[in-house]
Amino acid sequence: MFAVGSCLASAAAGCACSCCASVTQQALRSSARAAWSVLFTFSLVTAWVARDFGSALLKKLPWVVRHFTGTDMPPDAWFGQQAVYRISMGNFVLFGSLALVMVGVQHKSDRRDRSLHHGHWLVKAGLWALCNMLPFLLPNGVVAAYSWLARFGSPFFLLIQMIILLDVTQNWNDAWVEAGEGDVRYFHALLAVTVAAYAGCVTIGGLLFHFFVPSGPDCSLNISLITLALILCLVLSLVTMHPSVRRGSLFPAACISLYTMYLQYSALQSEPRDYECNALGARLSAASATTLATGVLLTLVSVVYSAFRAGSNTQTFSTGGYEEPLIARHSRQLEEEEGTSAGLDGEAPGAARMERGGGAASGPASDLDGPVTYNYSQFYLVFALASMYIAMLMTGWGSQAGESKYLINVGWTSVWVKVVSQWVTVGLYCWTLVAPVLFPDRDFS
User: Fold this and answer.
1) Over pLDDT 70: what percentage of the chain?
2) What is the pTM of this model?
3) Are 47 and 18 in contact (CB under 8 A)?
C-alpha cells in the first residue's frame, strides 16, 4: 500500500511539474516583455546587493586592485560602485545588441521574432547570466569609460519617461471625455481626479516647506526650488486654459502638475543626509534598515515599471495597424467584428485573416505572416537606456559617497538631475499645447 501511495504521489508531482513547465513556457512565448522585465528586475536586485555587500569579492580580483597598494586601497564604496557599473554594463550590452539585431523586424514570420524574441528562453537566460558576469573580468579603464557613457545615456531614459507620461495622461483624458458622451459619470470622475490632483499639489507644497525649510538655517535654495515648482504648476495650468490652445484640458494639466511636485519632493529628498535643510533626510537616517530597504525596493520597482511601460506603449512603439494591450482582455466589439480577442504579446485580432500583400486569408499559417504590433528594436533600446539609468541611480550619478548602506540616489547631482527633469517635463507639456498654435500648417496629431 505504501509503495502504491508513493508511486501515485510521484506521478502527481511529475504531472504538476510538467503542467507548471508547460504553463511557464506558454507564458514566456506569449509575453516576451514580461519575461525580460523579470530578468531585468533580477539584475537590479543583484546590482543593489553587490553594491552594498560585494566589496570583499571585488578586492580579490587582481585586475581590479592591481593599481592600488595596501595604503592606497579605495574604500568599500568604490568597489560597490564598480559592481553596479559592471552589472549595468552587462545589461546594456545585452539589450543594446538585441536592439541592433532586431532592427527591421516587421512580420511575425521573421525568424528573429520566433527564435530570438519569443523563443529559446533557456538559452537567453544563460546569455543574460553570462552578460552579468563577464564585465567583472574587464579592467577598470573600460568600466570607467562606460560610467561616463551612462551619464550621457541615462537622461534619454528620463526623457522617455516624460513622453510616456504626457501620452498616457492625454489618452486618458480623451478616452474619458469620449466615454462621457454616453455616461456623464465619466465627466464627474474626470472632475474628481482633477480636483484631487490639484489638492495633492498644494498638500505636497506645504509638506515640502515643512520638511525642507526648517526655521533655523538659511534654506533659500530650497525655498526657491519649491516656489518655482508651484509657479510652474500655475503657468502650465494657465497655458492649458488659454483660448488659443486647441487641445487644452485641466485633467492632463493637473496630472503633470502633480508629477512636477513629486519630482520636486524627490529632488529635495535626494539632498545629502547631513545637509541642514534636509530635515526629512535626518529622520530617514534614524529609521530602521527595514524601512530604508523597503524604500529602495519601491524605487527599483518604479524603474522596472517605467521601462516595461515605455517598451510596451503602443502609441510610441507601434509599427502601424493594430494596437495591442498590456494584458489580455476580451472585448465584445472585437469578438463581434473579428471573432477573437487580443493576446499578451502580438496576437492581433483578425491577424489570421491578414496577408502581407493584402486580401483575405484564413488558417493559422497566415497568422505567422501578420505584422508585429510593436517595435522590437525600440523595446530593447528602452531597456538598454534603463540599464544605464540604474547605474546612475544607485551611485548618485557617480558622486555618491556611499558610506551608508541602503542610500540610493542621494547627492547633489541627483538633486539637479531631477530638478532639470522637472523643468523639461513642464516645457514638453507646454510645447505640445503651443506648437499647434505656432505652426498651424503642420500636423501634430
Assistant:
1) 69
2) 0.71
3) no
